[in-house]
Fold each of these.
Amino acid sequence: MELESVVAKLKRHAPVILGSEKFAKYAVMLPLIEKEDGIHVLFEVRSLELRRQPGEICFPGGKVDPEDKDEKEAAIRETIEELGINRENITEVYPLDFMVSPFGMLVYPYTGFISHSECIQPNPAEVGEIFTVPLSFFINKDPEIYHIEFKAEPEENFPFDLIVGGENYNWRTRGIEEYFYVYEGKTIWGMTARILAHFIEIIR
């Protein structure tokens, strides 16, 4: 292969996260509503009929479909479908930092303001209930953070003879932080709590 050919191919390459083509893409919305005592964050409790994470607390969201113009529109679409509201009820939609999940997901979070919240009619197929928490609660209270370590377990036929150290190779352990908020008996944790904590860091 000639140098010119190599350079031409490199010039045409648009960098992405290596291996991201195998990742599932999700978009979520951190919804804000106005109440008499100020701004609240709205949460969903996932329907107990759902196969994945039934009964857990989350934000509206889901997988980015090929028909979605972009991740932002996917987050808006999912919010409309799950909360039973109109597109006009969602304004001031802004992106937060996207997340690369260790479980093979790219997550694109957004925050947006929901007007006429009294019109919300949750989709019972996906949402068991909704509730809100004053934004001031999260501003004034840091999350509790716990650590989880993942252990490396090579498959049975792993070629230890090809690496320095062989079976005694010193694998790096991978850890993640799990965030927890507890409000009036409701536990907000995992990715939802991590997105929420990031949002609070921005507005503080």
Amino acid sequence: MLEFFSTLHWGAVVQIIVIDILLGGDNAVVIALACRNLPDRQRTRGIVFGTLGAIILRVVLIAFAVLLLDIPFLKFLGGMLLLWIGVKLMQPDHDDHQIDASDRLWAAVKTIIVADAVMSLDNVIAIAGAAEAADPRHRLTLVIFGLIVSIPLIVWGSTLVLKLLDRFPVVVLLGAGLLGWISGGLIIDDPFIDRWPALNTEIAGYAAHAAGTIFVIAVGWLLKRRAIANDNRAAG
């Protein structure tokens, strides 16, 4: 143990923590959005379990980071999945008494893990790159250590966003739009897109981000209006 800490590349540890802080803001938004409809007593559990599950999955992704980047359509499919998650998070909560609280808790945890897996492709590579400076024997352990240190920061960020969601419902719209923005970037950055030079420009990148944002907000808003109208007709 002492040998591990004496040979540990602390510069890489700091880089991993900073990367997770800088790139974890959108993850905190997803965690908060997924847990916003849970009872107050279950919110902390949802945040903690979802974050732990996401961290474990992220370690697995980092172990295969180089391979993942070389697979065409992976980012494209991830972006499409993130679009769906963004639209889903905009929908009204159907809180009937037939739904058990534990089911809702684990549904939120599952949403957090899936969304984090999709959104973490870019920072997974960044973290793996930071670990390259360390001893090869310590790289995976180093990544795990850095992610564990960052867990309290992600949980705190999610708790802060939850408070904003309670006070300002428009944050839900902004959060869903953020997911759309990220999904557009994932789609345009897929290795398969490289075969079309016209799509590898800065303008095309911004256009893809904007298109993802518009899609999530527009489709989410339309489906939300339809769901509310159906509820009103059922109630009437």
Amino acid sequence: MPRSLMPRDPGPALSVAVVGGGIGGLTAALALNAAGHAVTIVERRTGFSEVGAGLQLSPNASRVLADLGLAAALRRAGSEPPGVVVRALDSGRKIGGVTLGAAARDAFGAPYYVIHRADLQTLLLDAVRSRPGIRLLMGREVTGLTETEDCVTLALESGNGARSESLSADLVVGADGLRSRIRGHLDPRGLSQAGMAAWRAIVPREAVPEALAGEATGLWLGRGRHVVHYPIHAGRDLNVVAVVPERQGDEDWGRLGEPAVLRAQFRDCAPDLAELLTVPDSWLVWSLADRPVARPIARGRVALLGDAAHPVLPFLAQGAALAIEDCAILAQCLAAQPVVEALDAYARARRRRVRRVQRAARANGRTYHTGGITAFVRDAVMRRLGPDGMRERYAWLYGWTPDA
């Protein structure tokens, strides 16, 4: 087992129920099983067909996955962009950039990848299925949770309520996303709409305007909106995300968006960007929502991770990365002390970090979408720092390690 995830003082093997089979849940299962625990993943879906597009795996996340034995699979499925090119959305003028690629790998000790969400889920799922100590329960909805001094019991239903069963474990990990059912056991506070929506599409690389067909990530900043794009699928396709204002949020994740509606939001943008946004004939739309860090992240024999514990707005590309960090720290804490004390230590270890990332993401959103004199100052700072300085500005984020 890699040193960073190796138990310091191995205790007895535990039974762990992980609720949610997304990126955080699958990674948690791998990390906990690598530490010697028996894991059952409870997933409400009947199959794995990840809805979404691309995501970014910064070094703080990719090093954890590499420590779990997934380095080669990540290299095959992901790409390392050489950097980020930042442009003004209306004029196309270059504002600045961020150096990534080999420079980021050298600086932070791990690669900065871009990858399709489904590809990441597939390689995690392949690893999970290869571990005899991990069991998958598909098509089960958690309808209740009962905690005693010695265990936690989940009430499960399947077949639209036609079948009921229960599952007991030494602890439960809620990795069930933004609208987590498990979170309600610890913190009943609800979501707040962010007033924005993310429109996502994947386009063939050959259909991309020539000026935007390089390997670098593109980031276009404008008042109240922005666009980001980067190659995925070994460079065959381009992942495109446009974040725009939205008056009324919608809980229907991945709903279809009308292309003409999005194009109207960008009718005054630079020609190359306008051409790119005409390529997709369908978009999937997510209303962005915000929520404070759970209070507490863990208590007793129940812990939360990822969006269930601390959803983060997408302006730092850290949603998946923070969930992956959580998994490494949870496994470490459980290796060193009894369950209740371990989960308390996990909550304390993560609280300051995730709050800082949440605040930084919200601040980045304001910076991305500002205008006037504030945008002028933003652009001047980017030019003064230069691409290497912009990368080092996030050393606190990308340089994180499980042993920090």
